[in-house]
Amino acid sequence: MVAETSAWGRAIVAATGADTKNSGSVASADEVKARQTPPEPFRDDWMAKANDLSFKGDIEALRALYSEAIKRKAKPEIVEAIKAMGEALK
């Protein structure tokens, strides 16, 4: 209910240009900070998984791990290392 009230208030301020107690800004400083804080990086040991899959010779799982690493924006050197392991299994 509070969120809905806040949303209505922001809409009214945005539509009418009404003055607010926080100098006319629509979002509070906490709300802006919450949106600007980058998400927690994915914590995983990519290379341990890749080494395990490479040792097992599981190229399909290694390809899936490679895709996941790209999707989760792993460091480029890790993505390249996983790619090299997959190419070595071909």
Describe the structure.
It contains 5 helices and no strands. It is mostly helical and 90 residues long. It has 2 domains: 2-36, no CATH class; 46-89, no CATH class. α3 packs parallel to α5 (76-89) and α4 packs antiparallel against α5.
Features:
90 residues; mainly alpha; 2 domains; rod-shaped
Would you spell out the secondary-structure blueprint of this structure?
Layout: H1 2-16, H2 29-36, H3 46-56, H4 59-71, H5 76-89
Helix pairs in contact: 3-4, 3-5, 4-5
The number of distinct structural domains comes to: 2
Distance between the termini: 58 Å
Mean pLDDT: 80
Order of helices and strands: HHHHH
Q: Proportion of β residues?
A: under 5%
What is the CA-based Rg, rounded?
23 Å
Strand segment count: 0
Low-confidence stretches: none
Helix content: 55-70%
What's the number of helices?
Answer: 5
Structural class label = mainly alpha
Biggest sheet character = none
What sort of overall outline do the alpha carbons produce when their principal axes are compared? rod-shaped
